[in-house]
Amino acid sequence: MEAQKKPFRRILLTGAAGGLGKQLRERIGAWADVVRLSDRANLGEARAGEEVVHCDLADRDGMLALLEGVDAVLHFGGISVEDRWDPILQANIIGLKNLYEAAHKAGVKRIVFASSNHAIGFHPTTVHLDADSPTRPDGYYGLSKVFGEQMSRYYWDRFGIETVCIRIGSVMEVPKTHRILRTYMHPDDLVELLRCSLVTPRVGHTIVYGMSDNDANWWDNSKAGHLGFRPKHSSREHEHLFPFAGYPADDDEPSKYQGGPFVIQGPMYE
Amino acid sequence: MEAQKKPFRRILLTGAAGGLGKQLRERIGAWADVVRLSDRANLGEARAGEEVVHCDLADRDGMLALLEGVDAVLHFGGISVEDRWDPILQANIIGLKNLYEAAHKAGVKRIVFASSNHAIGFHPTTVHLDADSPTRPDGYYGLSKVFGEQMSRYYWDRFGIETVCIRIGSVMEVPKTHRILRTYMHPDDLVELLRCSLVTPRVGHTIVYGMSDNDANWWDNSKAGHLGFRPKHSSREHEHLFPFAGYPADDDEPSKYQGGPFVIQGPMYE
Amino acid sequence: MEAQKKPFRRILLTGAAGGLGKQLRERIGAWADVVRLSDRANLGEARAGEEVVHCDLADRDGMLALLEGVDAVLHFGGISVEDRWDPILQANIIGLKNLYEAAHKAGVKRIVFASSNHAIGFHPTTVHLDADSPTRPDGYYGLSKVFGEQMSRYYWDRFGIETVCIRIGSVMEVPKTHRILRTYMHPDDLVELLRCSLVTPRVGHTIVYGMSDNDANWWDNSKAGHLGFRPKHSSREHEHLFPFAGYPADDDEPSKYQGGPFVIQGPMYE
Amino acid sequence: MEAQKKPFRRILLTGAAGGLGKQLRERIGAWADVVRLSDRANLGEARAGEEVVHCDLADRDGMLALLEGVDAVLHFGGISVEDRWDPILQANIIGLKNLYEAAHKAGVKRIVFASSNHAIGFHPTTVHLDADSPTRPDGYYGLSKVFGEQMSRYYWDRFGIETVCIRIGSVMEVPKTHRILRTYMHPDDLVELLRCSLVTPRVGHTIVYGMSDNDANWWDNSKAGHLGFRPKHSSREHEHLFPFAGYPADDDEPSKYQGGPFVIQGPMYE
Amino acid sequence: MEAQKKPFRRILLTGAAGGLGKQLRERIGAWADVVRLSDRANLGEARAGEEVVHCDLADRDGMLALLEGVDAVLHFGGISVEDRWDPILQANIIGLKNLYEAAHKAGVKRIVFASSNHAIGFHPTTVHLDADSPTRPDGYYGLSKVFGEQMSRYYWDRFGIETVCIRIGSVMEVPKTHRILRTYMHPDDLVELLRCSLVTPRVGHTIVYGMSDNDANWWDNSKAGHLGFRPKHSSREHEHLFPFAGYPADDDEPSKYQGGPFVIQGPMYE
Amino acid sequence: MEAQKKPFRRILLTGAAGGLGKQLRERIGAWADVVRLSDRANLGEARAGEEVVHCDLADRDGMLALLEGVDAVLHFGGISVEDRWDPILQANIIGLKNLYEAAHKAGVKRIVFASSNHAIGFHPTTVHLDADSPTRPDGYYGLSKVFGEQMSRYYWDRFGIETVCIRIGSVMEVPKTHRILRTYMHPDDLVELLRCSLVTPRVGHTIVYGMSDNDANWWDNSKAGHLGFRPKHSSREHEHLFPFAGYPADDDEPSKYQGGPFVIQGPMYE
């Protein structure tokens, strides 16, 4: 009996040495004959079905080479926390420009972009958002994610390169804070959302919030219904960890906004 | 012990010899003392609790007679696929006018109208719709369904005849194509939605999408919450049938629009 | 010195023997080298720059011939008041189908369609509408206008034939009733709106209300801002004609709805 | 082993001798070291962990004393049905003013206000509402609830006192009428919603509908997603009690509006 | 030659001794054969075409008598500034209840209610509102105006008594502060809006902002288009009076909110 | 007689050597005791009331010095057309970051940011936008303007620095193309909008389209009503320059989108 054909010949996972990248590396092998992994950090040896490429997002020529022969991209590379301007500029702004230029030149037609809830982090915790709500970044990091969403919007309007922008909440097995009860995304749910983002026949330019089926939530994903994403996990099973952590709230800024602690970390001027 | 009273004395099912009509004939007997069945095709013998009437929708006098003594109508008659203008004109336009005229004259107060997703079929597959989204018919057939929805709107505004317009997706046990994962409606769910449409005390002029609880979906039924319809089935149990049928999509028109293949079938000029 | 080039070679005015048609015939000569006029009624002799074609909208072959060689259409033909079903069916439903089929076959790329406020006539007089408000036809006539708007929507989505649907209010020099203070459109403003509808480079499928700059009004045209239509007239100069005609309103249906007397004229069953 | 710390030192339950008040008294002991109970009716003896205060809402000085030392309030006091003007004025209008004045002076920072579906009872049964839909009170009682919602809005804007306004449907174990299938709230779900309203870190001024997970429903709670309320019960298990109670509806006012029988009870002029 | 018939037999102006009342008394004589004037303050002698009635709004029996024989009401009575609770309760809450009860019993079918911008005064000065924006009262006074708007909503839904609620800005000849450039309403424009509110055939329950055609503005009146109100004046001719009164704003509350100084005046607890 | 006090002590105009900058330099002297002018190009001699500073936006230290002692900024510096990535990165991305960092450190509280219609240039010419419509940049340039709008949003949310983002259309005396009839902004109207943006007491984070009162238009400024901007000019007086330039449109991309020729200029990869 023949092995079943995989949906892609080659997909690229950037940021494969990062926190999420490492987890994803273990779980996406079934989606492509070859998974190309890239990072500027050490990725170790390529395993069966893998290609390993050392590349910095800010390296334009390197990026042009990296995208060659790729069918689809899972872009998890770049800075993933609030930081000083320069690293964010290099990886998340110049890097995004390099990614889309290279994708265009290499003929890549779909990208899944790891955006972040910090693109909307300055919305208060008492409002409900959907994909069309105005962005309100909560720092240089969030600002760079809005930039990436708009870069991808442009490449869709201009060249028909499709992108799913996932505004990822907090990916972990067990929520670490009371706030994360709302932003929680179980790793399985992230993998499922990536799968949906890759195999849905048409996605155009879709914005979706990356979260599990949490009881308490700030975000409405109905406009991404075409992706068919149904999370299987929920933070409700972990609510007992923060029994009275709620009211009365500390009178500090982080507890007022969806972005939580990020809203006071920036801007890091030096 | 007494038999329980049925909710209606007589309901009419048009199109009873059609694909859906035949299935419904088997399942709606409990709703009325008498189920009147009509079609222009052969309906066979009337069984217990049935009346069989041979009638063409375009036959005005026949329709006047058909509606006499009826409490409520399930209108499944007419052309149900893209077709040339003339048959659609006769059955779905003139027929609709005849139906509402006859219902008015006979004092019928509620109609459940089998509309179609083809009333909105030219919306792209990446947008989410609800009952108030603008219609975008994908052919003469879809256009005739918009006409029917508006005819029923008029009879509600003018005479208080209530209609539930069901924009039916794809009714079948097992989805036949990848697109149908989104439009899928299990026959049980259709029967349940018809029941809800008949027994809800007031429906005014309600538009509802006829679909099961599919993970991937384009339509939001919250504005029809008063109907109390909760589908029990989902296409998710059939997703394995189309494992990699999605991306990369063929670059053809049908895969771009919710109406699928219908969008290129018409207009059939002759 | 050379005569200035006219914007079109040949435009077609249907319904040229009708009330509005006659007025327009006098005023549109500057827009095309040839104005083709059609009606099923007598149009008299063709004048300089005119072609006269006798044609019934329900005559499919006649319509195919009529549209040959035409650059753009002003469609004012058909029934323009509430009427029995059959004449509306022939002229406004079958006629519309014939018009778009013929336009498609002849390569016509733009149509200005005389729709009507009766497409939304069952909205109460206390609500404000725009181009996306749900239609609520107030009779067979209004229903046929919704049908025409949807037919044109389909030809735009399917073949890129552009249409401006003008929901005309009440075109006259002096308002005849209190209601018309709200629906009033001075003939000059109609001519200007037709001009805008013809010369705007792209119109896609645009819906616009045909009214002057009346103080009292029910309709918002901002979504048609690309047309650049600014009415020069207003019913305010005629308000003195109906000094106390307002409150207390008669407790009849016509005064409750935007469609006025139309809302009780139909349906004319025979 | 130490007993776990309770989230509040002292909470106040007003209306503790009323129908809902009695049920709540049995179930909220775990939320505070001390539950202060008040009513103008007899509350019996204080039990362990309780304080009993006899107080009329219209008694301003009494209210000032009642709120002293309170961390949070569950306000279930006042008239809870349609009634004559004077009792509603005293308890629900003057009483509300007294409550918020006293809360302000005592430094109370959160109130859960038992509002009612009768604040929106004059909406037809065929429309779907959310927290921002315009209010349409169905009597003096509903009007007093809108007043309370606005009083609490003011204290949030002016002094940052948070309120969750719960537009309670029909709290009971088993629905008593067909209408209640839509408004049903199981007592457990009410307790859970109160808990969510108390322990969510920030609520600002939140409006939420108090209902179980009923299949048939008129209300959308997505804008209160930050509360994390997920009902566990549903009226669907009781639908068999009203098998054909629906169509055809009696042609009376109560069956046309969400407020049901309340819409014809008022105004009680004497 | 006969004198022209006036539109009303008898209209009632409450609050006729107040600031606006006195101005209106001079200007509304042409609208009715008899203008009944009421106030609890001295109104002086009745002139030709006038009736003078001394009446306190809180006096229920007096109000019942006052409304007898009245065709329409201009309700300008009650407290018109922020004040202590008791006077507002008596005049603006109990008084409103008395007014509508009396109107109902006397068969009055239309009321023009002087509401206030203070019903929405806690909206920031950087947002734009229309008739459906949520109310945010800025004190007891604003709260009483919301109450009146909702009382009138109820009488429209319950008995079909029509009301136009005018959220009056600042009526004066010359703006006194920089804020009033936005809220300015010339007295002529108020008179014109009252006229429109009285003579429009149907108004249902209409909310309209009372302002002139000011360049700087916070409010959108398009939903009241059926009234036909077009202001003739504008604060722009007075802008030179406050040349640099704007930026930098004082960092105080009144300059942040549309309600201006009212937002810090209340609540007046004693 | 004393000279009247000017509203600001010192305002900064960046880009003062550019096309618009030169015009503005001539016209803003009345707004401040000192107008500081900056550019990386030659600005000539400082005149009375001027300070001239040579500064590149990408020079962080230079920017810190430039903002010292400034009350408000008119930011017209940077690249103002589609260009290669690097100059846009330096001036419009890094430059914007430097501007806001410097403004923050210098205590500047208000900035007027010259954004551009190219932030929304990929919207079709048949849609109408307002300040909350999603952005759709039409190139690197438009993308940098979205970045600037979001940077300013962040500094408002984080530090309360106010910004008015003006999405400028086409500033010139006489429209040069048919498209510019829609985007036209007379220089006087730009100056007036800048004045409004500076002197309005509170602006928070306001987005406004910079256009004259053109008959044909794509943009709705009602959400910026608090600015009090009323343009005095209109492209209508120039429409005769492009008599038949409209229909039939060339079938090219630039005529399909609001951004016009920009939509095909980028991305300039080298």
From TrEMBL, chains A, B, C, D, E, F:
Keywords: NAD, Oxidoreductase. It comes from the Bacteria. Residues 11-171 form the NAD-dependent epimerase/dehydratase domain. SUPFAM superfamilies: NAD(P)-binding Rossmann-fold domains. The keyword NAD applies. GO terms for molecular function: oxidoreductase activity. Pfam families: Epimerase. Belongs to the NAD(P)-dependent epimerase/dehydratase family. PANTHER family: 4-EPIMERASE, PUTATIVE (AFU_ORTHOLOGUE AFUA_7G00360)-RELATED, NUCLEOSIDE-DIPHOSPHATE-SUGAR EPIMERASE. This is NAD-dependent epimerase/dehydratase family protein. It comes from Massilia eburnea. The lineage of its organism: Bacteria, Pseudomonadati, Pseudomonadota, Betaproteobacteria, Burkholderiales.
